[in-house]
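INSTRUCTION: Work out how this chain folds

Fields: amino acid sequence; protein backbone structure tokens

Chain under study, with its fold:
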Amino acid sequence: MEILKFGIKVLENCSKISSKNSPEISQASATELPFSDNYFDAIITDPPYYDNVPYSYLSDFFYIWLKRCIGDLYPDLFSTPLTPKSREIVAYTHSKSWEEAKQFFEKMIAKAFREIYRVLRPDGIAVIVFAHKSTDAWEAIINSLLNSGLVLTASWPIHTEMRERLRAQESAALASSVYMVCRKRVKERTAYFNEIKEELEKRVREKLEQFWEQGISGADFFVSAIGPAVEVFGRYSRVEKLSGEEVSVQELLEYVRRIVSEYALERVLKSPNLGSVDNVTRFYLIWRWTFGNAKVHFDDAIKISRPLGVELTEIWDKGELVKKEKEFVRVLGPLERAKDPVFVRRRRITSMIDALHYVLILWSRGERDKIKEFLEETGYLRNEMFWRTAQAISEVLPEGDKEKQLIQGFLYGKEEYLKGARAKEPSLLEFMER
């Protein structure tokens, strides 16, 4: 009923528009716009989101009924049995391989962006809206944008999706769309990546500060950082390494992910001193903060782990922290790791997160007396960053999460564990050597 009410409001508003100011609606291809050069002051477009939504297939339902009702009035618009699909700019694989689908999308979206450049006035602006958590999708959009001659001058993430919808609950779906404001590039300039790195990082961190204060988090936070980076990167028609080789968009996005990961860790842990937190624990914290308990496509999992110094292929399917399920990757929590007898026998405790998971297993089993002993042996009992990491993981997990509940219970007994603790404690390395 709510959707019907909104629809009626739109119709009522449109019916009041004066005929003198009525909009002109035309059907045309985005790759062949029927307008002269330098025609528009502004262009606002919401292009297809890569492979997210099967637009033309959804349209078929309405197309069939419209054709039956008004097909005789608009024969040119209803000349085909179903909606035309061959020129739709989407990365579908129903008739192509995955690589062919990616190439088709990038080629056609670049053609559409070049048309926007052609019909836009020299001082005009173009606003492009995009939302996708996949790096491949963003590489395609940014490559096409830069190759068209458009320069991104500002970008804003705006919440456009409902997190309550089923897909958002079961996956790492985004809640935000990124609105990218672009202008025509005035000068053709070249820069070395080393020369713009400092400015790029400063701009990204500047915007991350704003996004953090606005409550943007997780996968949306990573995506939101792409715009500020391209604002700096895109001022140049070519960015090179010292060797003269061109810096790819893929390399740019990897650099951005590293900046975002470091910033997020500093904010989540409430400390700029991350030296005492090992790489695997950093990865775990960023994963939980970004994806929660969702399973993530292998390619995207690799791209978030490598900037943190973690190679997933070395640790999955060994009963350890990461599990691969076909093309997806999941990061295991303490209750899942409790099913591994080798881990429970303390044979695989090599990181801070391993130690935390082990004490959470002890806590869940009611073996509270062993927690203090284990923490003393491993040197974590008086390690402030250990407790801070546990608190941070608890804070990033949603209400009702089992791991969150375990951590909260464990932290509640912190003072009890610290009572009468030994003054000197061995390090984790000493513990492992025993």
Summary: The domain at 30-54+90-268 is CATH 3.40.50 (Rossmann fold). Residues 164-172, 423-434 have pLDDT under 50 and may be disordered. The chain has two domains: 30-54+90-268, 279-433.
